[in-house]
Design a protein that fits this description.
The structure is a single chain. This protein has about 50 residues and is mainly beta. Helices cover about 0% and strands about 60% of the residues. The radius of gyration is 11 Å and the shape is elongated. The two termini are about 15 Å apart.
C-alpha cells in the first residue's frame, strides 16, 4: 500500500510537495533535490511525518 508523504525544504522549512511512496520497498525517509519556489532555487527536501 502506498502512503502519502510531505516533502519539506531544508533551508526555509516550507512544505512544498505531496507525494506517495511504498513503505515496503522504501522504509527509510526520502530525500531529494527539488525546486523550492520560496527560495527560488533547487534545494534538498526531506520527508516529514
Amino acid at each position: 500500500m502506498r502512503t502519502r508523504i510531505t516533502l519539506e525544504c531544508t533551508e526555509c522549512k516550507n512544505r512544498n510537495y505531496n507525494m506517495t511512496k511504498d513503505k515496503k520497498t522504501h522504509p527509510e525517509r526520502m530525500e531529494t533535490k527539488k525546486y523550492c519556489r520560496f527560495c527560488k532555487s533547487h534545494t534538498l527536501h526531506k520527508e516529514t511525518k
